[in-house]
């Protein structure tokens, strides 16, 4: 699809399980790449079952750092939402929803059509929409290495994650120019009243971001919004990307994606 820059396009995977000729709802998913990794397509196991329910999914490739610093990846939000908004004959304008995992979840929490950008018309901010957020990073002002998970894990990946996370954060933003308390990179600092009316948040027991993620959920819930939050037991950050069939992680993934399918019906 076209972007705001004439010499650049945005790569998409479109999953369409509906043959209806009427405008359909759409879920726009941000690829889980930490804004640094070439991982486009990694969310296929989420996109396919959602599309099979008759809810088309647009999987978006991130604009990666460190070649493209903040707000490059976040500008994709506005570009893709504007693209969907420009096609009322194709997409139901009252049902444009967003999803993202890990740092890509920041992409969805910060979405302009959730009211986090004053650059868009008010009519764009008031539409019904749903936010799906898996293992979100609510705020990066505190080092990941200082955050404690609800439950400990001996898994090597869990031990490495805080250090890798700290490596990624300065890769996609210039610390000299972007404050870590900027709500566009740390949704915890945003006005909870401006977030989506329907939200699903999936947290995990062994994730260092779980506590702050659930605290953000409560802030948004206190505003009277419909917020579902489910904590996956014995799971770590990014568990849904590498779970083996038949394992506890696989069952938790099916459960989480089931919650996603249900809230999209709201």
UniProtKB/TrEMBL annotation:
<dbReference type="GO" id="GO:0016787">
    <property type="term" value="F:hydrolase activity"/>
</dbReference>
<dbReference type="InterPro" id="IPR029058">
    <property type="entry name" value="AB_hydrolase_fold"/>
</dbReference>
<dbReference type="InterPro" id="IPR013094">
    <property type="entry name" value="AB_hydrolase_3"/>
</dbReference>
<protein>
    <recommendedName>
        <fullName>Alpha/beta hydrolase fold-3 domain-containing protein</fullName>
    </recommendedName>
</protein>
<feature type="domain" description="Alpha/beta hydrolase fold-3">
    <location>
        <begin position="34"/>
        <end position="239"/>
    </location>
</feature>
<dbReference type="Pfam" id="PF07859">
    <property type="entry name" value="Abhydrolase_3"/>
</dbReference>
